[in-house]
Write a structure and sequence with these properties.
Number of strands: 5
Strand order of the largest sheet: 1-4-5-3-2
Structural class: alpha/beta
Strand content: 25-35%
Shape: globular
Order of helices and strands: EHHEHHEEE
Bound molecules: S-adenosylmethionine
Distance between the termini: 25 Å
Length: 154
């Protein structure tokens, strides 16, 4: 996996952070499924349910990075199905793995590098570490590709 580390000022609008914006454009391009937009629109699982199996080329998952962040930053924005609900994350990942075409790409932003993982048929290709200075958490931007050989997954 290729790893790069850069510095950028933090923003709750992740895609406006320049190196993250560039990373997304250079890897998945301009067209991708975005289940966690800002501001909140609808529940991400219901949103992903609209897509048939193996129908999309790219998904970018940019959820609240913790329960604390969800409460602090997005409390007016709905979406509380996530709060204290670890099963929700597994469902989001399973659903994402299903809707992506073989060879398709998933970017996951957050504070860990778990991503969808090999168990769901994905290979980690690139990791962008965006440091924000002081005691702030870095933003980790992980690119994974769905393996061709596991087409039958899901
Ligand atoms: C990190 S922000 C996304 C920022 C966005 N990518 C941008 O660059 O502007 C996470 C978003 O997920 C929304 N959200 C929270 N729970 C959600 C849920 N269950 N389904 C869909 N969106 C949710 C929050 O309201 C917030 O807008």
């Amino acid at each position: 996996m290729k790893i790069r580390r850069v510095f950028a000022i933090a923003s709750h609008e992740t895609f406006r952070i320049k190196p993250i914006n560039q990373f997304i454009k250079r890897t998945v391009g301009f067209e991708f499924v975005d289940p966690f937009p800002y501001p909140y629109q609808m529940d991400a699982l219901n949103y992903l349910d609209q897509y048939p199996k193996s129908s999309v080329d790219a998904v970018v998952l940019d959820p609240p990075y913790s329960d604390h962040q969800l409460i602090e930053m997005y409390k007016k924005a709905g979406g509380f199905s996530i709060l204290g609900n670890p099963k929700y994350w597994a469902q989001i990942k399973d659903k994402t793995a299903q809707v992506i075409k073989p060879n398709g790409l998933v970017i996951t932003c957050g504070w860990n590098t778990n991503g969808l993982g090999s168990g769901r048929g994905f290979t980690k290709e690139k990791l962008l570490i965006v440091a924000h200075g002081a005691q702030r958490n870095d933003t980790l931007v992980l690119l994974e590709r769905k393996n061709n050989s596991l087409e039958l997954y899901g």
